[in-house]
Design brief:
Layout: E1 7-8, E2 14-15, E3 17-21, H1 50-62, E4 67-71, H2 81-88, E5 94-99, H3 108-114, E6 118-122, H4 128-135, H5 140-152, E7 156-163, H6 172-182, E8 185-190, H7 207-218, E9 222-224, E10 233-238, E11 244-248, E12 261-264, E13 269-271, E14 280-281, H8 283-287, H9 292-301, H10 313-316, H11 319-322
Bound molecules: S-adenosylmethionine and iron/sulfur cluster (SF4).
S-adenosylmethionine binds next to strand 5 and strand 7.
């Protein structure tokens, strides 16, 4: 494959990581992600079909993308998910997926065929009733048993937990001990604002608060681990124990200066930032047979330095500004 020059923005950031949302549909209804009234489901023709996902992804890879993460909605509810995973696995990239885990047991072979080793699974509580209430469905046992199955099958598992005050912030240390026993990583994500999720930072739990709780419980056993260059997470582990934990602090400590991410929505729009209210249509240009490379380059060139231009915490927490974005379920995280 002939490689073009890398995709860069005005600030010199090289973009080599693509997150593709495969669908806006989901088998859960997490309160922090999907609006209570749901989202309007549109006709299939609005979304990338199998060949379009693969064709557009191939163009990105020719432009220097080294890693692709599949997300959604729930990526595994898509009917052609196995084909998409196995075909993308043929590209010279690292392939990863973020899933709620409910259907993961049906995809073990596809993951292995595709050479997909790293799987992020979302689980917001270790308490069944609480998990089911946050996700508005009853799949706790299935998710937990699939996490165990994925671990037993040799995958590298990271468990994502969106922390919400008064709901699951009392489980931070339990999650760390649980992850240590299973020898996996748990990642605490600060609650972020998206359209329809009734965000208000009083419901969020900050990096500093998380570390206060962790230090109070584990004291000197808490060890800082090195973070990778483009890592969005600050990584820690407990001395003499397996597993690790990490904190993703997009609200109180954004990591934009090393951002290397491009997002492609299921309806084929580029988002040059998770928080961007504007998007660039790629799918219709692709359908018209246009050269999409230039469209991709110019979309990324226009990327703002920090959180789609919401530099200060005041800007970021202003609902007039942060609600211009879509719901998370239609972006993919
Ligand atoms: N359905 C899959 C899942 O839940 O893992 C993939 C899509 S989901 C949108 C991707 C990630 O975004 C999940 O880890 C989820 O917890 C996280 N997420 C969703 N809404 C969020 C919010 N408001 N703040 C922080 N993280 C959020
Ligand atoms: Fe679905 Fe994932 Fe959003 Fe939950 S976080 S509603 S599982 S897309």
């Amino acid at each position: 494959m002939i490689e073009a020059s890398p995709i860069v923005d005005l600030f010199g950031r090289i973009h080599n990581y693509l997150r593709i949302s495969l669908t806006e549909r989901c088998n859960l209804r997490c309160t922090y992600c999907m609006p209570a009234e749901g989202i309007v489901l549109r006709d299939k023709s609005n979304f990338m079909n199998t060949q379009e996902v693969l064709g557009i992804a191939t163009t990105f890879v020719q432009m220097g993308i080294k890693k692709i993460r599949l997300t959604g909605g729930e990526p595994l509810v898509r009917k052609d998910a196995a084909t998409v995973i196995e075909e993308l696995g043929k590209l010279p990239i690292e392939l990863a997926i973020t899933t709620n885990g409910i259907l993961a047991d049906q995809f073990i072979n596809s993951f292995k065929t595709a050479g997909l080793h790293t799987i992020n699974v979302s689980l917001d509580s270790l308490e069944k009733e609480k998990f089911n209430s946050i996700s508005r469905r009853n799949y706790f046992d299935k998710v937990v048993s699939n996490i165990d199955l994925l671990i037993a099958s040799g995958f590298t598992i990271k468990v994502n937990v969106v922390l919400m005050r008064g709901i699951n912030d009392n489980e931070i240390c339990d999650f760390i001990e649980w992850a240590a026993k299973k020898n996996i990583q748990v990642r605490f994500i600060e609650f972020m604002p998206f359209s329809g999720n009734r965000w208000d930072w009083s419901k969020g739990v900050s990096y500093n608060e998380i570390m206060e709780k962790v230090n109070a419980r584990f004291g000197n056993s808490v060890l800082k681990m090195p973070d990778k260059k483009n890592d969005t997470a600050k990584n820690y582990r407990l001395a003499d124990q397996g597993g690790s934990f990490a904190i993703i602090s997009s609200v109180t400590n954004p990591f934009c200066s090393t951002c290397n991410r491009i997002r492609l929505t299921a309806d084929g729009k580029i988002k040059n930032c998770l928080f961007s209210g504007t998007e660039t249509d790629l799918l219709n240009a692709y359908r018209r047979g246009e050269n999409i490379e230039q469209i991709i380059r110019s979309s990324i060139w226009d990327k703002k330095a920090i959180r789609a231009g919401m530099e200060s915490f005041e800007d970021f927490s202003n609902t007039d500004r942060n609600s211009k974005n879509r719901s998370m379920i239609a972006i993919g995280g």
